[in-house]
Amino acid sequence: MRRIAVLLVTLAALTACTESNAGRVPPPASANGQASTPQEAPAPGMRIETVAGGLEHGWDIAFLPDGKALVSQRPGKLALLSSTRPGATVTQVQADFTDVLAVGEGGLMGMVLDPDFATNREFITCQTYKENGVGVDVRLVRWRLAADGSSAQRVNVMLSGLPVARNGRHSGCRPAIAPDGALIVGTGDTARAPISQDRTNLGGKVLRLDVKTGGPAQGNPFSSAQNPNEQRLFTYGHRNVQGVAIRPGSGQIITAEHGPDKNDEINVELAGRNYGWDPAKGGTETSYDEDVPMTDLQRFPDAVPALWESGDRTEAVCAATFLDGPQWGTMNGSLVVTALKGAKLLLFKMDDAGKIQSVSVPPEFDDDWGRLRAARQGPDGALYVTTSNGNDDKLLRVTLG
What pLDDT sits at residue 366? Predict the structure, then answer.
């Protein structure tokens, strides 16, 4: 197991953690009024296979109808994998990513196929955008993949104007397609105090967009607002949403969000609601005050409490997806969340209402692979995860052991 010293420090911090519960996460104390605390649960055995290596900060995964896969890479590269099985070959797709601002947390980030990809071969990326070397915004860009997958041409910029920080901090940006066809996108607040609570700004939000145009999706909670940005909002008051998952069967939108030095969150997104992050303290603070609660229920009594918090630990939760299908046995229906700093995979069992019942960490993913970023379930029912260590990063195929 790599980074033994780091692991020992982490284990020591997990209160009363012994060899018998290695690979498990003690439930954190809840500060948000959740009715009960999720329990620890034994982690299932996982079989991990390396599909391919040689990647660099693989940020997202898209599965093509012909069995191939695309992997976006933060420095501004797009890889085409010949299959999702071990031994797949990796080819870099030729595309113009020279305007990608690859710095800090920004770069070429989330990616999703257009629902009509089988006929139009189009896909959508999130990227930080620069002009003359300076960051301008975060934007959604539509691309068309060549028939042989060797190149991709830009179709248009679907949506621009999402805020960006010069150092790339809190750039977001994870897309997902909802059952009704809407494009759901989690964004970051770029570490600027007033943005999360400003409903005319697209940062620190969950957006619900028309997947073809980037405009507001029908039925959005602020559709009658005069400001077009506000019309695109589904929820607001977020810090840095990097995971978006649609729960099979219910259509619930579940997000994973970075806390400051603690209290990473898992949230269920409710239309039009405030999630309580306000480092501006109602406009009284001009600096980015990260000592405020992730969900400030005193300032915003109607804010939505988190489903789960990491407590005093920083996991740096990232992507989120659901395990769906009988091949997952007792883990069918569980939420999977990757962790960057925590270097682990978190498994959340949820009840029908969406409340988290238990949390576990497969020992095979407790620091053995380093930082984990993307997580998507493939068409074959397996879970696919990318590492994000910056050197020979990998796409992993995960099934029950």
Answer: 83
Measured CA to CA in angstroms, residue 94 lies from 52, 82, 150, 330 at distances of: 19, 15, 6, 42
Query: pLDDT tens for residues 121-151?
Result: 999 999 999 999 999 999 999 999 999 999 9
The 10s digit of each residue's pLDDT in 244-257 is 999 999 999 999 99
Residues ≥6 apart with Cβ < 8 Å to 130? 99, 100, 101, 136
| Best CA proximity match to 101, nearest among 72, 139, 60, 135 | 135
pLDDT attached to residue 4: 37
Residue stretches of the chain with pLDDT short of 70: 1-37
Residue 228: phi and psi, rounded to 5, are: -65, -30
Q: What is the CA radius of gyration of the chain?
A: 20
Token output for 70: 């695309």
Cβ 323 vs Cβ 356: under 8 Å: no
> In this structure, what token pair is assigned to residue 344?
């682990």
The pair of structure tokens assigned to 123 is 């896909």
| pLDDT at residue 364 in the model | 94
Amino acid 200: pLDDT? 98
* Burial status of residue 287 (CB atoms within 10 A of its CB: 0-12, 13-18, 19 or more): exposed
Cβ 343 vs Cβ 372: under 8 Å: yes
Residue 133, phi-psi category: left (phi > 0), alpha (psi -120 to 50), beta (remainder)? left
pLDDT in the model for residue 401 = 86
Q: Apex CA 398: angle with CA 56 and CA 83, to 5°? A: 60
CA distance 59 to 193: 26
CA 60 to CA 318: how far, in whole Å?
11
Q: Cβ atoms within 10 A of the Cβ of 36, count?
A: 10
Q: From start to end of 8-119, where are the E strands?
A: 39-40, 46-55, 58-63, 69-73, 77-81, 90-92, 108-113
Token pair for 281: 């303290």
